[in-house]
Amino acid sequence: MKKVTFILILMAILLISCNKPDRKQDILAEVNGETLSLSAFTATFAEGEWESMNAAQKRRFVEDWVNLTLLAQEADATHLSDDPALKERIDFASKKVKANALIADRLSKIRISEDQLFSYFRVHQAEFQKPSLMYNIQRINLPDKMTAENVLQQINQGMDFMQALRSYSVESTEENAGMMGFVEFSSPDSLFWLAARDLLPEKAGIVTKDEKWYVIRYTDTKESDKEASFEEHRAEIRRKILLEKQDEVYQSLLREIKAQNKEIYYY
Fold this sequence. Notes:
By secondary structure, this protein is of the alpha+beta class. Among the domains are: 26-107, Helicase, Ruva Protein, domain 3 (Orthogonal Bundle); 131-227, Chitinase A, domain 3. It has 11 helices and 6 strands. The strands form 2 sheets. The chain has a 4-stranded antiparallel beta sheet with strand order 4-3-6-5. The protein is flat. The chain starts with a helix and ends in a 7-residue tail after the last helix.
């Protein structure tokens, strides 16, 4: 009877341990017992920013956290953190982070309509009246996202783009070496244009289109005979409007909070 009871208890423990979620699945790194969780870390980025990064970029951010944590722990170990002046600086930095989070939260609730975007474009049209750029894009066609991220990582670590093209591309590149020619915003390949615009010359990035994955770079630019359109500047205009509203939100928040807090004194 005792043996049966022991077996039942053991089975219950095993079942509980099997159903218990693996905490380490959410852990990105650990330094001397201090852990970085995926959920906490991604919360420090803008919505969708973490998901849009490739594996190499994510690893770089995690490595930065590890390095900063090691240095901070060493500061604690050597009692530098006990210095009153440093405590004041830490307290001030903490307040800045919290204040910026409050402002960012209020900004995130601002909805910018199409009319606002287009009105800004018309008012500031002189800023945007310049020829649109075209990018001479070279691409490596790859079978899936994982392969694309792996190839991009190898290129970022020093592999020659042409070597990667010859080794990995799943489309024939013998005639054109993966060159798409000069691509402009209004072309059917506008997704490639948008991705190239965010890259530095000769630097590689990833594009997905029609369920296909590409590592791309641009080798040259030239001006189009068309002026840049509203659509090309949409994201830039939205950023400019939010920047203009940032001070407005800051002042509005201060007025609201000061109206609720009467115990403010200056000496």
